[in-house]
Structure formats: structure tokens, C-alpha cells
Design goal:
Shape: elongated
Helix content: 25-40%
Strand order of the largest sheet: 3-4-5
Strand content: 5-15%
Order of helices and strands: HEHHEHEEEHH
Largest sheet: 3 strands, antiparallel
Distance between the termini: 39 Å
Structural class: alpha+beta
Radius of gyration: 23 Å
Number of strands: 5
Length: about 220
């Protein structure tokens, strides 16, 4: 978000299926254009084309000021090598408007922000023979000098616990290992204290989770 917030140019383009004028467009046509550019596989091109209008109108609904004509059509223009008018822009600050609107929506929903972290590795897991993303290992830049606190794990799972000294790639989740339960309970209490002090909006959910785990404050 930081890079997009600070980016500027003479014209920033959002690329989507066209829905103005008399020229017909379709998911397959847009996917074909993307694929022929040589930078994306066909299945990804289809997914991008199919989702382009849904994502665009979401941005419109949350306040990004894309231009439209008196009939309500969002006017497009041709970008390089594009046969149709699929490009649209709100000017040189398009990405700034987008990130501001998305940030405001996240705040309204109580979604927490974690500033000062840099993603360094994706965590994956395999289920039913298929690999999927399961989380991110991030560097806490404010505590990079501390061996015990320099890394944080943001996970799609409810809890994970790793011994980075023996498992630097975070492949072996120790959260259910009996030998580590004392340490895990200690980290849970420390996290509880942090959430209370920072008045984090996820605190009630975390308190309920601790009650389920039988973790009591000492």
C-alpha cells in the first residue's frame, strides 16, 4: 500500500472490460488480449478478465472518482496494443485514491493494520495434493536487531509456533507439541497484554480464544 500511495504519473490506468460505447467486449476477448501480450498464463488471464468489472465497481462504490458521462457510462480509452477502450483513470493520483478508499473501508470494518513489517517469505501448506498459501513470515523492521522479536508470522491458521533456530523455513508447526506448551502459553499472555495496551479491536475475539484454550493470566 505504501508504494501505491506514493506513486504518481501523468496518467495512471485501471484496466478492465469495456462497458461504454458500441464496441462489444467479453471475458474471453479481454483474456485473449492479456494472453497475447506474453506476460500471463491463459487461466490467470481468464480470472483477471472475469473479475475486472466486479473489482472496478467495488472501487467505484467505496469512492474512487473514476469519470463517467451523462449516461452513466465509465468512459475508457485505448492503452498500448489494446484493441478496445479498456483503460480508465482518475488522473495522476488514481492509486492514491484507491488506497485511501480501501484503507477507510478497512478501518470501518475494524481490520487492524500492521505497519513497519516487510514480508520475506510465503508459507504454504499441502492439502488433498494441492499446495496453497497459508501465511507470511515478515521482518519487524523496528526490532530487527533482536533475535527473539525480529520475525513475525501472519497466518491464515488460528495459531502457529516455530523454532526458527532449528526450522528457519517455518515448515514444522509446533503449536500442538507438548514440550512447547509452557512457552506457547507465555506468548499467548504476552500477546494478550499487548492487545490490551494497544486497545486492539481484535481483543474480544482473542479473549474468547484464550478461554477456549484454558489460558489464564498469571
Amino acid at each position: 500500500m505504501g508504494t501505491s500511495r506514493n506513486t504518481g504519473s501523468d496518467k495512471q490506468t485501471y484496466y478492465k472490460m469495456t462497458q461504454c460505447g458500441s464496441e462489444p467486449d467479453s471475458v474471453r476477448k479481454m483474456a485473449k488480449t492479456l494472453f497475447e501480450g506474453g506476460c500471463v498464463d491463459g487461466d490467470i488471464a481468464m480470472a483477471e478478465a472475469a473479475g475486472s468489472l466486479r473489482a472496478f465497481y467495488h472501487l467505484v462504490d467505496i469512492g474512487v472518482p473514476f469519470p463517467f458521462n451523462k449516461s452513466g457510462e465509465y468512459v475508457g480509452y485505448k492503452t498500448d496494443h489494446d484493441p478496445l477502450k479498456r483503460g480508465i483513470s482518475a488522473g495522476p493520483l488514481t492509486s492514491k485514491y484507491m488506497t485511501e478508499c480501501l484503507e477507510r473501508q478497512a478501518e470501518e470494518r475494524g481490520i487492524p493494520f500492521f505497519d513497519g513489517y516487510q514480508a520475506v517469505r510465503l508459507l504454504t501448506e499441502e492439502k488433498d495434493g494441492k499446495k496453497r498459501a497459508a501465511g507470511i513470515i515478515a521482518l519487524n523492521k523496528q526490532k530487527a536487531a533482536s533475535p527473539d522479536e525480529r520475525y513475525a508470522v501472519f497466518s491464515a491458521c488460528r495459531e502457529e509456533f516455530y523454532d526458527f533456530s532449528k526450522d528457519p523455513d517455518a515448515l514444522n508447526n509446533l503449536i500442538d507439541e507438548p514440550d512447547f506448551q509452557e512457552q506457547i502459553q507465555d506468548f499467548r499472555r504476552r500477546l494478550l497484554t499487548f492487545l490490551e495496551e494497544s486497545e486492539d479491536p481484535v481483543l474480544p475475539d482473542f479473549q474468547r480464544f484464550l478461554a477456549e484454550k484454558g489460558c489464564e493470566r498469571q
